[in-house]
Amino acid sequence: KVYLKLEPYVSNSLWRITENIWVSGRNYNNNSHCLLHYDGETWEALINGPADLDYNPNEITGIIQGVYLDSESNMLFVLTHIGFYQCEYNDELICEDISDNHVWQSAMYSIEANAQNDIFFGGAYFDIWHYNGSGFHLYDGFPNSGRIRSLDVKDDFVVCAGGYYSSNQLFVIRGYRNSQ
Question: How many CA atoms lie within 13 A of 165 on its CB side?
Answer without folding.
Answer: 9
